[in-house]
Give the backbone structure.
Amino acid sequence: MSRRTRRVDPMLATGLSIVGLVFLIGLLAPLLTSHDPLAQNVRDRLASPSGDHWLGTDLLGRDVFSRLLHGARIDVPLAVIATLVPAVIGVTLGIVSGFFGRRVDAVVMRLADVVQAFPVYIFLVALVFLLGPGARSFVVASACISWVGYARLVRAEVLGLKSRDFIVAAQAAGIGRRRVLGRHLLPNVMPQVYAYMASDAVLALVALASLSFLSLGVQPPEPEWGRMIADGVDRIRSEWWLSAVPGLAIVIVGIGFSLVAYGFERQAARR
Amino acid sequence: MLQFVARRSLQGLAVLLVVLVASFALLKFVPGDPARQVAGPRATEEQVESIREDLGLNDNVGVQMWRYLGRLVQGDFGSTTNGASEVADLIRQNLPVTLWLVSTSLFVTAIVSLGLALLAVRRPGRLVDRLVVVTGSVGLAVPSFWLGIVLLIVVARPTGWFPIGGWGESFGERVRAIVLPCVALTASLVPVTTRSLRTSMLEVRRSEYVAAGRSVGLTGISLFRHFVLRNSLVPTVALFASLAGMVLSGTVLVEATFALPGLGQMMVVGAINRDVNVIQGLTVVFATGVILFNVVGDIVVAWLDPRIERR
């Protein structure tokens, strides 16, 4: 099939639209709601959903709908950053490991073994403990942990490609290492990396919400979704939506990322 | 076989040693002066200095690490920062809850995902198969702690069958207390396990010996039982061995949601209270658990399929 007629995978398109839409909602949040997500109103606390407060108010009398929309400004970009940083590190290490091999390879892979000896959340909590809670610590901790998956994936791909005819031919033709890497190896590895990134974004999104839920991530009063779920936990007997709705937002964005991953996987498989 | 067991155990020990050293480094990197923390805010400079001497913080780092490793081997993780109790005692108290949760969840996950994967693989591309694939990708996006809360809202609250949180005194209470956490944890694992079991079973299905079985006239159930199922055993066991980390991760969140007094809960409280010894001790315990699980898993896999030993 020629490049021109190749269409974007429908799964990929749907996923990108979902994530893009939520991101846009977050961007436009101040325009979409007249309530300040941080403004407390003690006299109006735990109000039921109404025309004024679409999702009612929380324990401190803050408008829940406004907090939900503003949450998209925190959770979505942070999930993306916490995916990009380890991806760059992991892909670089994976290429170096697979292409140049030997000593670097041994060091990188043993390091990966040690990281993987820790359960992810145990490691996350320990690192956040070390760095102090907050969004920055979350990104740093993700970088320390998630690079392993990319490094292993890229290393395996590079090792597989290295002996393939077109790479051997390129090297025999006297093309420099850097050019072989950039022009021949990378373009064949990246589709798998994109798919992995999208599924990693799901995990990052859930990890951020989980840490914030445990009061180790984004700190109050920021309207972060996991934090909002934690804030509502004591009220599930009556105002159950306080915890239920922010979780739904996470699930929707997560499904969006999953669809993107699925679409990328299918595109990579079709090549 | 014996050689493989020995080699794999040694590898496990090596990783464990690195983990222990890493956990020591954790202590060293924590901001703040541990001696001052113990002494309290009103202590004089001399008091802090004498505590520092008592804690051995003035010794050289190598000596300190050696002492730390020596303590760990004896099962001594130090006391909590407030000095109220020994970390090792706390771990012993909290361990049963986590073991209960982990073992029941693993058991249920194994049965459910094996059943689903078998259903999916019998007719690839049909309804059940597609459902498995779709829930597999949706499932990852559902935070387990949130699912726990939803279960509390839609099951525990209206029926009153299960406590809203906490552990019980009697066996009956404990069983009831663990049902919903187990469901939440299982639900977060099943998508991953089912998906990967499905993939490995499809591979088996397409393999040469299944074609051979077909060519001698075996069909349906008997082909499935003798060729597909038996050969899927190895990837299944391997999968569950690699699951340890995920399950332990899950307990941190699920225990927090259901207020279960287990190790995960202890870890979170320790992190919030900035208690170095608790975090250090639990990191070591959890990592040891994962390594042990992986080593045993690898040995079982090699025992089931002797070809693996030679790799």
In short: Residues 64-100 of chain A form the longest helix (37 residues).
